[in-house]
Amino acid sequence: MHLPTPHGMDRRHFMRHMATASATLPTLNFINQIQANAAEVKKKNKACILMWMGGGPPTIDIWDLKPGSKNGGEFNPIQTAAPGVEISEHMPKTAKVFDKLSIVRSMSTREADHGRGRYFMHTGFVPNPTVVHPTFGSVVSHEIGSKNKDLEIPAFISIDAPSGSPGYMGTTNAPFVVDANGNIRNAAMGDMPRGRLDQRLRMLGVIEENFIKSKRGELPQSHKDIYGKAVNLMTSEQMKAFNVADEPQEILDMYTSATPVGGAAAGGRMMGGNGFGRGLLMARRLVEAGVPFIEVGLGGWDLHNDVFNTLANQRLPVLDAGISALVTDLTQKGMIDDVTLVWMGEFARTPRINQNVGRDHWAASWSVMIGGGGLKNGQAVGATDADGLSCVTKSYLPGDIWATVAHAMGVPTTTVHTSKNGRPMKIANGGTPIKELIG
User: 193 exposed, middle or buried (CB, 10 Å; 0-12, 13-18, 19+)?
Assistant: First the structure.
């Protein structure tokens, strides 16, 4: 998977210095069991977990079914815990917790290309050759993560997801990428005594400061900040949050109770099977550690062929188990009102079913799921027509979704940042929080 590289620093350069750090730091025990800390939970850390559906999911078959229409497909709707809100019959567990969730059914985003759609949905801005806009996780990292002095690990974690560039938020707010097993490259340490390690780090600090004083642009300071975070990351107790295998068996099973047909067995303590469920469990643990933005990816949604079989046997069982487990877990821990959940892809799929029993790219009328966060949940906002071809109520853009998230997290929607070329940039591209969701 190709991941964007922060401005001014290529991946090989960064990983070479990570490897240098790993050669100088003492061995840490990454497999100690982490216990849920009630005091940490009581701090009520505001956070967002983005569930990114790479490829563009067919929301007409998940959140906005059209029974009786020629575009309706093979699935039937079922009632949810939210009165009057129906979703797919292949999402029965999620239906039971839908009083904690909502659907925005009238997204109209115009970008039906994978790359452009991914950029637009992550940033709220359409691609522009003159500026690189930050993915919203980087905005949260800058606005919230940088103010949390107790947070020793990155404020923006991406788990099996493409994320995006930090843009004008700077390299220090770039996503820190791990896989659903919690694997972090170059995190194995040597056996050097701590005293000698500190001596080497002080020497490095002198070199870094000399480069910064040479006034050669922002890269020396960014390099120092990233190196410092790498050291903090590898020596912090908060690193234990990545180890989902420390969870009780029943919690692991709840998140990973579904496996795609033909996939490895789910559940247990092995690291095969349902990566999406493990990623969501890791996200909950990271929220407890104080991380304000976590993105978890589930790919395989570019369903130009065999859409209904793929959904019923592969995508939706995994999705249903993961979402329902996350909502249930957050609710039981008293965290649901402080963690905003967002589910989206780069666009949706055509209402029309093609000759290959698939659906193609479609951005004119589709759905995004949002919930938790103290929002006014248990509802469907907006509507499409009987065939799913157009929005028949007010339509929404990604900036409106992110403005709603910002509101839920306590980030002022009037916030303005400055791009590298000096242009003022409104948060979420000036989007407006969705009034039905914020009360």
Answer: exposed
